[in-house]
Amino acid sequence: MAERLATSESGEIQEIRTAVRQLCGRYGEDYWLALDRNNDYPTAFVRELTQSGFLTVLIPEEYGGAGLGVAEAAVVMEEVCRSGAHAGACHAQMYVMGSVLRHGNDEQKRRYLPKIASGELRLQSFGVTEPTTGTDTTSLKTVARRDGDDYVINGQKVWISRIQHSDLMVLLARTTPKEQVARKTEGLSAFIVDVKAAEGNGLEIRPIESMINHHSCELFFDELRIPRENLLGEEGAGFKVILDGMNAERVLIAAECVGDGRYFIDKATAYAKERIVFDRPIGQNQGVQFPIARCYAEVEAAALMVEKAARLFDAGEPCGAEANIAKMLASEASWRAGDVCMQTHGGFAFAKEYHIERKFRETRLYQIAPISTNLILSFIGEHVLGMPRSF
Ligand SMILES: Cc1cc2nc3c(=O)[nH]c(=O)nc-3n(C[C@H](O)[C@H](O)[C@H](O)COP(=O)(O)OP(=O)(O)OC[C@H]3O[C@@H](n4cnc5c(N)ncnc54)[C@H](O)[C@@H]3O)c2cc1C
């Protein structure tokens, strides 16, 4: 392998990289290909990642986790993706947990976090997106009505991933109509939903057939009752609960894209060296070599922004701009690296046994979810550069 850029990583981060790489090595690409073919869930992989403590690195030690930061968690996700795995099957456990940690009351933290750390409870699901309002989150129409000691939920969600492989979901719903609040971000509330108790009792779950194996579903709420004690944070302040988790989500997903990008570059480089056409390695042609080299430069640059955003997050500093920029740059860099990897492999890129087409489909998601590129550009234009609001 070619000499890599010098690293300033701590010994601890390098140890995490090595250990996650070894764990992922036990689940080769054929494991992921078989799951993708059958739309199956990587239960064994997720269990091992949890029990080894890597999926729960962000949970404080007092609740049974490792008490590390987003910088370390990002390295876990990056290595998972770099191994050829699909981190989308399990990444939400890391950042959704953060909403409980930062906004849950003591009782909620004691009740849920140790069991999430041990793997007894899975918090893999995050219910925000709705079919009729999409990115316009504050216009969402799912409502939570107070009734005695319960909230009663009615409405609909779409693209809610992993819910069939999760015991808990953090749900965002409106508790005060948008017309009655001073700011549209007010009047939304977050709830912890016990998925197993809810299904069939006011919650209907319908899987969506989709381009990647992401286990996403439509949800229908019809008078679902959830106890008042499952309110997460203050009533009406749910947008903040969700937003806090979103910065961590963006950094972790950006790290996954860096992992995907490095995966594609490793594959493209190896193939460019070994594939002989016209009696020489295809990588001897600069038309093949330069696109790979450019992708390498782009992925490394994006990785620096991921590191910066993670550092700020862990220091408790504002990091909305950095987290968004990291996600945008890394998702575009990984997509371009995927495209170049496809091109380098010629026709063989289309053969499933080469695994590239699967990773190519998987990495495409991140320019759309959890937030699309246009919305990030709009955030930078308005909130960082102070240009006029467009919506
Ligand atoms: C596989 C998958 C898994 C997902 N998992 C989850 C999950 O677990 N939980 C969850 O809550 N959601 C989930 N989502 C939803 C995801 O977060 C949304 O799809 C994403 O935020 C975009 O919203 P939308 O699809 O409604 O697009 P829309 O809001 O309809 O936007 C469509 C396009 O128009 C552009 N656009 C919209 N408004 C503007 C504007 N004002 N200016 C410029 N461009 C604009 C957008 O950038 C986008 O490209 C998932 C989605 C997918 C595909």
Question: What's the topology here?
Answer:
Elements: H1 11-25, H2 29-38, H3 43-51, H4 70-82, H5 92-103, H6 106-118, E1 125-127, E2 143-147, E3 150-161, E4 168-174, E5 188-194, H7 195-198, E6 203-207, E7 216-227, E8 231-232, H8 238-274, E9 276-277, E10 280-281, H9 286-314, H10 320-345, H11 356-364, H12 373-384
Parallel strand pairs: 1-4
Antiparallel strand pairs: 2-3, 3-7, 4-5, 5-8, 6-7, 9-10
What are the key terms here?
globular, 391 residues, four-stranded antiparallel sheet, 3 domains, binds flavin-adenine dinucleotide, Butyryl-CoA Dehydrogenase, subunit A, domain 3, 15% strand, four-stranded mixed sheet, 12 helices, alpha+beta, Butyryl-Coa Dehydrogenase, subunit A, domain 1, single chain, 48% helix, Butyryl-CoA Dehydrogenase, subunit A, domain 2
Structure, explained:
This protein is an alpha+beta fold. The longest helix is centred in the middle third of the chain and has 37 residues. A four-stranded mixed β-sheet has the order 1-4-5-8. It starts with 10 loop residues before the first helix and ends in a 7-residue tail after the last helix. Helix 5 packs antiparallel against helix 8 and helix 10 runs antiparallel to helix 12. It contains twelve helices and ten strands. 48% of the residues lie in helices and 15% in strands. It has three domains: 108 residues, Orthogonal Bundle (Butyryl-Coa Dehydrogenase, subunit A, domain 1); 112 residues, Beta Barrel (Butyryl-CoA Dehydrogenase, subunit A, domain 2); 141 residues, Butyryl-CoA Dehydrogenase, subunit A, domain 3 (Up-down Bundle), CATH 1.20.140.10. The site of flavin-adenine dinucleotide (FAD) has 23 residues, from strand 1, strand 3 and helix 12.
